[in-house]
Hints:
By secondary structure, the chain is mainly α. It has one domain (about 1-84). The chain contains 3 helices and no strands. The chain is elongated and about 60 Å long. The mean pLDDT is about 75.
Amino acid sequence: MYSNNNKIKKMGKIKLSILLIIVFFIQSIQLSIGQCSICTKTAQQLGEGPAHSLNGGILYLMFTPLAIMAFIGWRWWRKEKEYL
């Protein structure tokens, strides 16, 4: 039984590692546009470099609350699964 728990914990760590790698890979690509119309006009006036940084900042600020909500949802789901 003890070795089975270790296997489960090891698989959980592997899954978490894979998830983090995927998230960082997607974040580094930044192909999506995360700007509203006002931010787009401001970015056009700033130039190419600052516009790219502004877009990255917007995506970063968007990702943080979604990651927190996903973590809370996952913990809730896991807790409910234990009760069944």
